[in-house]
Amino acid sequence: xxxxxxxxxxxxxxxxxxxxxxxxxxxxxxxxxxxxxxxxxxxxxxxxxxxxxxxxxxxxxxxxxxxxxxxxxxxxxxxxxxxxxxxxxxxxxxxxxxxxxxxxxxxxxxxxxxxxxxxxxxxxxxxxxxxxxxxxxxxxxxxxxxxxxxxxxxxxxxxxxxxxxxxxxxxxxxxxxxxxxxxxxxxxxxxxxxxxxxxxxxxxxxxxxxxxxxxxxxxxxxxxxxxxxxxxxxxxxxxxxxxxxxxxxxxxxxxxxxxxxxxxxxxxxxxxxxxxxxxxxxxxxxxxxxxxxxxxxxxxxxxxxxxx
Length: 308
Hints:
It comes from Agaribacillus aureus. By secondary structure, this protein is an alpha/beta fold.
C-alpha cells in the first residue's frame, strides 16, 4: 500500500565500466536511501536513464530492488512509452514482477491533444490494478496536464497522485482548491521542494537525494513536523546542489555528486558522456564547497508530523 507521502528518490541506474548494470553499487545506494528514511523507490525515470535501458534490465532492477527493500518501502516503476499499447504492456510487466505502483508520463515524442492524453492515461489505468502517479512535466515533455484534465481523470480510481514538475508552485494550491485530497501531490522539482511542501504538497520525488539522502529526508520531516526554520536552514545550504537537477546534464551532475558521497560512479550510458572541462570543474566546485559546509542534522527520523 502506497500512501504517497514523504520522499521518493528517482533513483539513478548504475553501470559498470563495461556498460552492464552494476548491482553492487546500486545496492549500496538503495541501502543508504533506506537508512536515511525514504518512503519509496522510483525506478526507470529520466534520472534512471530509462530511455537507454532494455526491458530485461528494467525487470532486473525491479527484482533486485524488491529484494533489497524487503517490503520496507514500496517500489514504483516509471512508464514512458510512445504508444498506448506499449504503455499497457509495460504496466503489465511491472505488476507481474512485483511493482507496487506506477509513475506514468504522457505519450512520448507525439504531442498529444488534451483529449488524447486523458484517454491514454485512462486506458493504461484501466489495464492495471496498480496505483498510478501522473507525471506532469510540460517543460521537458511538452504536455501540460491541466486541472480540467485531472477532473476528467478523477473517475479512474487508481489514478491517485501527481508528480508536479510544472515549475509553478501555485499549481499545488490550485490542485488542493479544486480537488481537496482527491490527489496526492508530490513536488518533482528539487529547487521548489521546500516551497511546495510549505504550500501543502504531500511528498517530494527527489533527484539529489541519490547523493544526499539524509538531508533530503530531513527537510521533508522537519517541514511536516512544523519545524520550518530548521528545514529552511538546511534547504538554503542544499540549494546550489539542488540546482544541479534542473540542467540538461542532470544525470551526469547527480552521478558525479554520488561519487563524492560514496554512493555511486560516474558511468553513464551513451550517448551520454561524463562531464568534462569547465562544466565538470564548475560542478565539482559546487559539490566540494557544499561538503565542506555540510550541516549537522537533528534527529529527524523520530519527528512526528505537526497537527493540521
